[in-house]
Amino acid sequence: MIDLHSHILPGVDDGSKDMEESISMARQYVENGIDKVIATPHFIEESDSTTKDENKLVLEELKRNLEKEKIDLELYLGNEIFISPDILKYLREEKVSTLNGTRYALIETAMFDIPTSMENVIYELCLKGYTPIIAHPERNIKVQENPNILYKFIMSGALTQINLPSLEGRYGEKALETAKILLSHNMVHFVGTDAHSPRTRSPKIKRSLDILRQIVDEDEFRRITKLNGKAVLENRNIPVDEPLKYEEKSSSLGRFFLQVFKNSK
Ligand SMILES: [Fe+2]
């Protein structure tokens, strides 16, 4: 499997604290069947986020340590870029990194909001030849309220990545339910770990993968765990199925009142 969302780089964001933690995470990745990881430290504008060049140096040091420890894990560089109308500027200035330097850029939003500029940011990025990948939309409250928010973003050219631990309910019932809705409506293109440490938010994803296998068929499983990630690493185009619009089923109480209303006519 390929993980395109990981905070394995030591000491650069709220992920791994030091080299020792990063090495433990790398071991867990291998034990959990993941052989390629894109390190995606947070980039949040007007904060003290590290730059692409700084992250590169840390990545090289981590790679040397993995070699020394004989841990067979391939590492690549990216960023998890917090949504901003200035993303294109940061990309041009090389402050932030796309995934392995390709056209694919991992973008995150706040958990409680989808900014009004989001549609425009996606449009602008696509126009300039980038493909935004929206990180963990199932955790976003607005998407939980209305999964079809993603429908229009995907139709505009964006892709999405859900967090595997969401399938175990680790981010709550709503995130789990939303992840299932997105998976069954062609609105998920990648799964990732979003691992932050060797402890609580770790790369241990065997259970999540078992749950994922019960939700999607084998072809889709291979696409979202491996094939699409491989296409990202190689900067290839990813053919995607058209998303399906989610239609909320009326509640049983709602159906009862509808029946009463119909009978009274
Ligand atoms: Fe993340």
Provide mean pLDDT, rounded: 94
CATH class division: Alpha Beta
The sequence of SSEs as H and E is EHEEHEEHEHEHHEHEHHH
Class by alpha and beta content? alpha/beta
| CATH fold description | TIM Barrel
User: Could you give the distance between the termini?
Assistant: 58 Å
- Number of separate helices: 10
CATH superfamily descriptor: Metal-dependent hydrolases
Flag low-confidence runs.
Answer: none
Strand residue content: 5-15%
**Bound ligands:** fe (ii) ion
Side-by-side strand order of the widest sheet: 3-5-6-7-8-9
User: Biggest β-sheet: count, sense, barrel?
Assistant: 6 strands, parallel
Number of domains: 1
Give the % helix. 40-55%
